[in-house]
């Protein structure tokens, strides 16, 4: 009789040990998931693309795009593209054909660069340096650039990638990887 109660006691202890072990494994797994999320959040880049528009009498007219990393981690820029409607603009000559004459075009190479947190770059800046710009030219500039947009694909240090677009009022779209940059593109 004592042998049977001893077996029952062993069985209860064994089940208790299994439940405790399973709980410990679950807690360890849950902590690892939480740490992984915190690790990604600690290096999360967030690219914001803002339009540049400015006119001052005597200072000229400026339009373009500014790219800023508003996140907490570095952004590895996979590619940056400029669009007119749905058509990519691939070169300096295309821009000069679209916008009114006498424009000073400045652009900064972004593809392949690393943008640190809090850093902003003027990716594209079109500037007309005239003392008094006729209203027709101002209207022409805004008309020719009104449907322009910019797209930047970037990755974090942990190889998570996103695409951000100008004028976007939602979070950047998550992608698996950034496309290979186009050698004929501006950025």
Percent helix: 25-40%
CATH class identity of the largest domain: Mainly Beta
Beta-strand percentage range: 25-35%
Give the structural class. alpha+beta
Number of contiguous helices = 3
Q: Give the radius of gyration.
A: 28 Å
Describe the structure.
By secondary structure, this protein is an alpha+beta fold. Helices cover 32% and strands 34% of the residues. A hairpin with a 5-residue loop joins strand 8 (148-155) and strand 9. 19% of the residues are buried.
Defining traits:
Immunoglobulin-like, 3 helices, 2 domains, 32% helix, 4-stranded antiparallel β-sheet, 187 residues, alpha+beta, rod-shaped, 6-stranded antiparallel β-sheet
Topology of helices and strands:
Layout: H1 2-42, E1 47-56, E2 60-69, E3 75-84, E4 87-89, H2 92-98, E5 104-107, E6 114-115, E7 120-128, H3 135-145, E8 148-155, E9 161-165, E10 173-175
Antiparallel strand pairs: 1-2, 2-7, 3-4, 3-6, 3-8, 5-7, 8-9, 9-10
In short:
The chain has helices spanning 2-42, 92-98, 135-145, and strands at 47-56, 60-69, 75-84, 87-89, 104-107, 114-115, 120-128, 148-155, 161-165, 173-175. 32% of the residues lie in helices and 34% in strands.
């Amino acid at each position: 009789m004592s042998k049977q109660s001893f077996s029952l006691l062993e069985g209860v202890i064994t089940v208790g040990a299994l439940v405790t072990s399973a709980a410990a494994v679950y807690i360890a797994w849950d902590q690892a998931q939480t740490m992984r999320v915190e690790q990604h959040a600690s290096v999360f880049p967030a690219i914001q693309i803002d339009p540049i528009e400015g006119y001052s009498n005597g200072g000229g007219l400026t339009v373009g795009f500014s790219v800023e990393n508003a996140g907490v981690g570095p952004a590895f820029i996979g590619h940056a593209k400029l669009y007119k409607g749905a058509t990519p603009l691939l070169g300096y000559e295309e821009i000069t054909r679209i916008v009114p004459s006498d424009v000073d075009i400045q652009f900064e190479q972004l593809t392949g660069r690393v943008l640190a947190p809090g850093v902003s770059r003027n990716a594209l800046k079109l500037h007309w340096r005239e003392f008094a710009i006729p209203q027709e030219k101002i209207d022409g500039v805004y008309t020719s650039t009104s449907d322009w947009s910019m797209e930047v694909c970037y990755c974090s240090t942990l190889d998570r990638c996103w695409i951000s677009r100008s004028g976007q009022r939602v979070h950047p779209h998550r992608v698996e990887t950034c496309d290979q940059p186009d050698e004929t593109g501006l950025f």
